[in-house]
Amino acid sequence: MAQKTADRPGGGKNGLSGTGAALHGLMERLYPICRSITGDGVRQTLEILQEHIPVEIREVPSGTRVFDWTVPDEWNVRGAYIRDSAGRKVVDFADSNLHVVNYSIPVHRKMQLAELKKHLHTLPDHPHWIPYRTAYYNRTWGFCLPHALYERLADDTYEVCIDSDLKPGHLSYGELYLPGETEQEVLVSTHLCHPSLANDNLSGLALATFLARHVRSAGRRYSYRFLFVPATIGAITWLSLNRDRTDRISHGLVVACAGDPGGFTYKKSRRGTAEIDRIVSHVLRHQPTPHRIIDFFPYGYDERQYCSCGFDLPVGCFMRSPHGEYVQYHTSADDLDFVRPWCLEESFAVLVSVLEVVEQNRILLNRYPHCEPQLGKRNLYPREREQHLAILWVLNLADGRHSLLDIAERSNLPFHHIADAAGKLLAGGLLAEQDDLAVS
Ligand code: ZN
After folding, report:
1. 421 CA distance to ligand 1 centroid (A)?
2. How far apart are CA 299 and CA 296, in angstroms?
């Protein structure tokens, strides 16, 4: 079911602080590149991300066994066209990289229209859009084109050419590790294998890049790992190569389809009650854009791999309109106009808030648990009712069994109010860190 579209607060189209425009600007640079699950398009993309963050490019040779899969041969394409007998290119890869079925084997021959049609893909319901099709794991070739153009193709002899390579090489992916005070990790993963498609998933690439830059610039308790991987095979490859360290992942998010004007969608981890599930739900509940929380199901993006039963990691998926629920999905209409700067900016703000809760959530202890301590004599008596309420809730529930998130949920106050109150009480000596008391 399609969900309500978010209205931009205050209307208008300009970025709120410039972040939205910057996110969109990064997408504009990445958009023309022909990406796939392997190949130079992936490397070029990661090199552009390196202008923003020191992401490392990892190369895994074709043929490497990764669980039940094998890293495939590397695919690169230089050009492709269909030419009619008059010498006119009726379809040209130079116009759109979506014209070639991604991972097409090389071909160069002449054929009649009837035979050519077996290799053509269109969208009759949207006759001016080009579909996005892939042929990763079966060796074939094809072209995608607007149905309106397909219907105009005359009975003729056509020259078809796909100037591509499919041969042993590498699978490339990007990894950025940012160490924190603890080895426990927050994982942010996004797929980078789609060619000129914007929401799925240049929006995820841009948001994860800016989030990494944000995390880098701030102090942090957790260590962070940002993964930019080709969908499915990339996540499987990373999990296979890092199998013995996945127990460090305390919280994880897959970011995808997060730049369109639909409301937010959060797909919970397989566990359903992981801290990250509660945190994202809490943050979404306390912001104005429509949202929904959905349960895990084993279809979608790389949360499928992170949440496979052998790993069962606490990894959810953050989206706006989910895959398959907007008509532009996997077509040329998922373009730079479909993704809005203000939507990117809103998504970024939510993700930043989520990480703030991840960083700040912990258990604090009330040092004066018998009756309320006297706030006035410590200059802690707040003027505003909501602040007062937050302080009273924290004091009441800081019994060693409730985290700050528990307190925020029980009080129905936004986490940052609870965290602010806790900070003041901590500074005023009324609260103690759990670890401090354990030592003393
Ligand atoms: Zn996709």
Report:
1. 43
2. 9
Distance 12 CA to ligand 1 centre (A): 29
* Ion ligand 1: residue ranges with CB closer than 5 A: 200
Q: Kindly report the CATH number assigned to the domain that includes residue 123.
A: 3.50.30.90
Residues 195 and 217 in one domain: yes
Both structure tokens of 352: 């930043």
Q: 73 CA distance to ligand 1 centroid (A)? A: 21
Q: What is the residue-averaged pLDDT of the chain?
A: 95
**One domain, residues 307 and 220:** yes
Q: For residue 4, how far is its CA from the centre of ligand 1 (angstroms)?
A: 22
133 alpha carbon – ligand 1 mean position (Å):
10
**295 and 232 assigned to the same domain:** yes
16-37 tens-digit pLDDT = 569 999 999 999 999 999 999 9
For residue 407, the enclosing domain spans 361-434
Q: Are residues 237 and 107 in the same domain?
A: no
How many A from CA of 195 to the centre of ligand 1? 10
- Determine the distance separating the centroid of ligand 1 and the alpha carbon of 153, expressed in angstroms: 29
- Model confidence at 435, pLDDT cuts 50, 70, 90, reads confident
Pair 179, 203 in one domain: yes
The pLDDT-based confidence of 10 (bands split at 50, 70, 90) is very low
Report the distance separating Cα 228 and Cα 205, nearest Å: 7
Of 142, 167, 192, which one is at a domain's C-terminal end? Answer: 167
* pLDDT > 70? residue 115: yes
DSSP class of residue 1? -
Q: Which amino acid is at 157?
A: T
Task: Tell me the CA–centroid distance for residue 194 and ligand 1, in Å.
Answer: 7
Check residue 39 and give left, alpha or beta (phi > 0: left; psi -120 to 50: alpha).
Answer: left
What are the beta bridge partners of residue 131? 331
> What pTM was computed for the model?
0.95
For residues 105 and 239, membership in a common domain is answered with no
- The alpha carbon of 37 and the centre of ligand 1 are apart by a number of angstroms equal to 12
Convert the pLDDT of each residue in 150-197 to its tens digit.
999 999 999 999 999 999 999 999 999 999 999 999 999 999 999 999
150 shares a domain with 292: no
State in Å: Cα 93 to ligand 1 middle.
20
Residues 318 and 234 in one domain: yes
In angstroms, what is the span from residue 44 Cα to ligand 1's centroid? 19
- Ligand 1 centroid – CA 36 distance (Å): 11
Q: Measure the CA–CA gap between 284 and 267, rounded to whole angstroms.
A: 12
Find the 25 Cα to ligand 1 centroid distance in Å.
21
Residue 439 has pLDDT above 60, yes or no: no
Q: CA Rg, the chain, in Å?
A: 25
CA dist 94 and 278 (Å) reads: 46
